[in-house]
Sequence to fold (220 residues):
Amino acid sequence: MADVARQPLGPTPWVFDPARWPREDCVAAGADLEPGTLLEAYRRGAFPMPNDGVLLWWSPMQRGVLVPADLRVSRSLARSRRRFDVTIDESFEEVIDACADPSRPGAWIDSPIREAYVRMHRLGWAHSIETRDADGTLVGGLYGLSVGRLFAGESMFHRATDASKVALMALVEVVGDEGLIDTQWRTDHLASLGVTEWPRDRYLRTIAALVDAEPPGIWL
Fold:
């Protein structure tokens, strides 16, 4: 694992107030992608995702979440786990670039987003989990932000069957039973792994304590 020490972040002039948010998935537009802004947004339950060049902030009314104990590991996935090696924070930029591949359906990671999360990684807040084949080649992975005991997943990719699922298995091991994994939205693929939907209010109540908790020791 690469040594990425977490650095303190400065304040942001932008206010993320859930009490003001509309009852829609998109809650605001504008602001910036400075480290302090990103951290405050995640602490309050929002995340950035641009659309047509406009920086939008989202807090879905039905939030996709994975409670670590709910992860579903099929027999075939358990077998796949033995086919891959897992690394942490060794290839963050490679992972985000693979996730940003414009040929992927629904590609949304643009240059400003990439630069913002690479910066957060260098400051010790954004992390990647990589899966590698027997030759050490990167074949899957995921990245996101660790805020206390909340891991806010941003994107994942695979170039080999089950490679991204194995990365998620490894993430669950890191986060532990005291944490929560935010997947933003629930998809059928994620639901097959144990991801469920929580109403926004429940998600916000839950993370209020998690974001101030001690993070997993690996990411202190």
The first strand starts at residue 26 and ends at 29. Strands lie at 26-29, 47-48, 56-58, 62-66, 85-88, 126-132, 138-147, 150-158, 180-184, 196-199.
